[in-house]
Design a protein that fits this description.
heterodimer, A: alpha/beta, Rossmann fold, six-stranded mixed β-sheet, B: mainly alpha, 85% helix, globular
Chain lengths: 239, 255
């Protein structure tokens, strides 16, 4: 179980996260949604230990995440924009990641690797890959080590429809395998298919954190995009 | 750490810069040895080029490399790996590749033309200065979030060590020329890694006689075990403290 407790973070004068509180359990897909600059990526980076929160803590299986990097062997991360060393060959990148995590993982999941036919481009340097191809590499890397927690930052942005479909089906399959997913996206139709919970951030605050059926029941809307718009509108008229 | 270093090294070696860098040193050292009939004179000219160009290129290459690999380091840090391992690995990769291409590019010609102790000392000074300035560049690169500012700071450090510092020392000497300053100058020269390398080398080239009483003092001091020990220690300090400071900052930094 992943628990985010009262995380706050300021960059200079800007308050990026303000007492964010949320939990994610196995089998759940938590979608982190919000306008641009609402703190989604910063929240993800706090979970991964890339950004150190000013206050609050992240707990993984009831253990507070501090400086010890060991917990990250249970994590897989697909960044928003995958940047890799220009001269590194694709195959070499995969070897390197395997090498870096060798002592921690025994079995690897090469399903996405095969589905995206990545072995065919193992001989190409990373700099020659298009944005979409890099996304595929990032996705395959995130799933490779069968992590318990998968963090996907805008996974389908930049992927062609077929590849996006492959990724979504993979998420749905893996959801059954006792994993925790944290996904950010601006594509509501994707989240409608994948998410079990919605964490909506506005200016670094949690506007609401609800399960998908609960949200739809509350607003009486069938589609996620409409439901969110409905709820946010209602809040504005209230305040 | 060694894994990261290996991949950083591999990435850099596939980049043609280090090859060009090595060839540059081959070209420079060969031409100086051929221009001067006396290899010692050639080495003196070579020393001047080395003390300017090597810190400059080390600083620029190291800081640009670190900024360019920031995003990738982010992905590596999302794996179960310590931050210190990543930074030290990068340091070993950058410093190792620069040292290797300099060592080969300059070492082979020096061995051919002047395979003596002072020849080796010249190459040794270059290697140590590489370590020092890569270390300083890493410090600049973790201090500044912005790439342009970071590289600017690294260049400023280079400018200060190679040009400004000597100018300030000279001005001080001029202003206080009525006083015996030999010991003060000795201490001041020790505080700058470039000057330290320069003096150690000049004394080997027997140019110290030109420096009058100060030169004699230097000669005396560097001839003693204490002087050599202190010089080595100070160089080591110049390699280690910027790197340790960079490590401290990097461990708390938001990526």
């Amino acid at each position: 179980m992943l628990r985010i407790q009262n995380i706050s973070k300021t960059f200079g004068r800007l308050r990026v996260l303000d007492a964010v509180h949320a939990t994610a359990d196995v089998g759940q897909v938590v979608a982190v949604v919000g306008p641009n600059g609402s703190g989604k990526t910063t929240l993800i980076k706090c979970i991964l230990g890339l950004v150190k929160p000013d206050s609050g803590s992240v707990l993984f299986n009831d253990i507070v995440i501090r400086t010890d990097p060991g917990y990250r062997r249970h994590f897989g991360y697909m960044p928003q924009i995958g940047r890799y060393p220009d001269n590194m060959l694709v195959g070499h990148l995969f070897n390197m990641m395997r090498d870096l995590r060798r002592n921690t993982t025994h079995q690897t999941d090469e399903e996405l690797l095969e589905a995206y036919r990545l072995p065919d481009i193992f001989h190409k340097p990373m700099r020659t890959l298009s944005g979409g191809m890099r996304q595929k590499v990032s996705a395959a890397l995130a799933f490779l080590f069968q992590p318990q927690v998968l963090i996907l930052d805008e996974p389908t942005a930049g992927l062609d429809p077929l590849s996006a479909e492959i990724l979504k089906e993979k998420v749905l399959r893996e959801r059954q395998n006792n994993r925790i997913f944290i996904i950010t996206s601006h594509i509501m139709s994707d989240l409608d298919e994948l998410a079990t919970h919605i964490l909506y951030l506005v200016d670094g605050r949690v506007a609401f954190f609800k399960s998908l059926p609960e949200l739809k029941a509350l607003t009486g809307q069938e589609r996620l995009g409409r439901a969110i718009a409905h709820l946010m509108q209602r809040r504005e008229t209230q305040s | 750490m060694l894994k990261i270093a290996r991949y950083a090294l591999y990435d850099i070696l596939r980049n043609r810069f280090v090859v060009a860098y090595g060839l540059f040193w081959v070209l420079v050292s060969m031409s100086f040895f051929n221009l001067e009939s006396d290899p010692v004179k050639g080495m003196a000219s070579l020393l001047n080029i080395l003390l300017m160009a090597l810190p400059l290129m080390s600083v620029v290459f190291a800081s640009i490399h670190l900024y360019n690999s920031y995003e990738f380091m982010e992905l590596v840090l999302a794996q179960p790996i310590r931050r210190s391992e990543v930074l030290l690995g990068q340091y070993s990769g950058v410093a190792g590749s620069l040292c290797a291409s300099f060592g080969i590019g300059m070492g082979v010609p020096v061995l051919l033309y002047e395979g003596s102790l002072r020849g080796f000392l010249l190459v040794g000074c270059g290697l140590v200065l590489t370590l020092v300035f890569v270390s300083l560049a890493f410090l600049a690169a973790v201090l500044m979030r912005d790439k342009a500012r970071g590289i600017g700071l690294a260049l400023l450090i280079w400018f200060f060590c190679t040009i400004l510092y000597d100018g300030l020392v000279l001005m001080g000497m001029f202003a206080f020329s009525d006083y015996p300053l030999e010991r003060v100058i000795l201490v001041l020269a020790f505080l700058n890694p470039v000057d330290l390398a320069r003096i150690a080398m000049l004394l080997q080239l027997d140019a110290a006689a030109l420096m009058g009483y100060t030169g004699a003092l230097f000669h005396h001091f560097f001839g003693s075990a204490l002087g050599i020990g202190l010089a080595v220690l100070l160089m080591a300090v110049w390699v280690v403290w910027p790197l340790l400071w960079a490590l401290r900052i990097f461990q708390r930094k938001d990526l």
